[in-house]
Amino acid sequence: MPINQQGTTEACRKTAFGLAQRFGVRLEALHLCAAPWQRMAYSTELSPFYSQELIDIGREQVSLEQSEARKWFDHALQAHPRVSADFVSLEGPTSQMVASRSRVADISVVPTIGTQDELFWGAVRDGALFQSGRPMLAVPERAPLHFGETLVVAWKDGVEAVRAVTAAAPFLATAKRICLVTVDEGDHVDQTMTAMADYLTEAGLKVGASKIVPKADDVGEALLLEAASKEGSLLVMGAYGHWRWREWAFGGVTEHVLRNATMPVLMAH
After folding, report:
1. Assigned architecture for domain 150-268
2. pLDDT for the residue numbered 250
3. Whole-angstrom distance, CA of residue 184 vs CA of residue 213
4. Mean pLDDT, range 140-160, rounded to an integer
5. Residue 68 class from Cβ within 10 Å (0-12 exposed, 13-18 middle, 19+ buried)?
6. How far is C-alpha 177 from the chain's CA centre?
7. Residue 165 to residues 142, 157, 162, 226, 230: CA-CA distances in angstroms?
8. How confident is the model at residue 186, as a pLDDT?
9. Contact 269/163 with Cβ under 8 angstroms?
10. Contact between residue 43 and residue 33 where contact means Cβ atoms under 8 Å apart
């Protein structure tokens, strides 16, 4: 659970602690802050003495932010006494630090797009989703406390979707309903959804498969509407099937879902 000096959103806090209690796992609250050297305005004209003074000021700021983050964590831990949790604070580039710790975690719990301090959280999502090799759970601010009763798995024949299904294994094992859906994009017929449904059925899971037709080629909105129509839903999907610069330049399914989801979304890249 990445946090800054103010912690994270209420929805992320409740979700992360709730999952830790539900699955009997240990939670890590990862505090991220810029190192003292990152806080210096670059200038070749600064004297060594003045540079050291700025670094000392930066160290004081780091210490203050760590103290505030620790207070937030202690308060959160008091609200969830049944959960085992650790506080870890790292200094350095946000995305790199998140990626490093996410690689030794099952999943990272982060806010969706639109949260205050989006520059910070954008770097967090970048590290958790694109650089870690691990899945990310994106949680909107008004996400329900109880989810996963229904899994809506967005299927597309690609590595990202396969990794998302694999990452969802703990949720698949406890879900009451699993809905495998593919979006009819009109350009080709994907025959692999039946194969994936058979694969999950062989694992002893009850799976329903369906095809949805988006309005005006809005794939992301079609997926969100399908997930929202199910009780206690968790949307499972691959992220950024195209090159990321294309998603940023022209918009994309992943970005639309991260901006507009009303339920938690499990993503893998």
Report:
1. 3-Layer(aba) Sandwich (3.40)
2. 42
3. 5
4. 93
5. middle
6. 22
7. 25, 12, 5, 17, 18
8. 67
9. yes
10. no
Q: Which of 147, 139, 18 is nearest to 76 (CA)?
A: 18
Tell me the one-letter amino acid at 68.
E
Residue 56: pLDDT band (50, 70, 90) is confident
Beta bridge partners of 137: 109, 266
- Domains 2-139 and 150-268 are alike in CATH topology: yes
Q: The pTM is what? A: 0.89
Mean pLDDT over 243-251 rounds to 49
Classify domain 2-139 at the CATH class level.
alpha beta
DSSP bridge pairs for 88:
30
Using CA atoms, how far residue 259 sits from 4, 53, 70, 84, 262, in Å, is 21, 41, 29, 31, 9
On the question of pLDDT at 200 being above 70, the answer is yes
What digits encode the pLDDT tens for the residues 153-170? 999 888 999 999 999 999
* Calpha distance 236→136 (Å, rounded): 10
Per-domain boundaries in the chain: 2-139, 150-268
3-state secondary structure at position 236: strand
Query: In terms of Cα–Cα distance, which of 107, 98, 102, 114 is closest to 258?
Result: 114
Give the H or E element holding residue 148: none
186 torsion bin: left (phi>0), alpha (psi -120 to 50), beta (else) = left
DSSP 142: T
Which amino acid is residue 80, in one-letter code?
H
Q: Which amino acid is at 90?
A: L
Structure tokens at 259: 């901006």
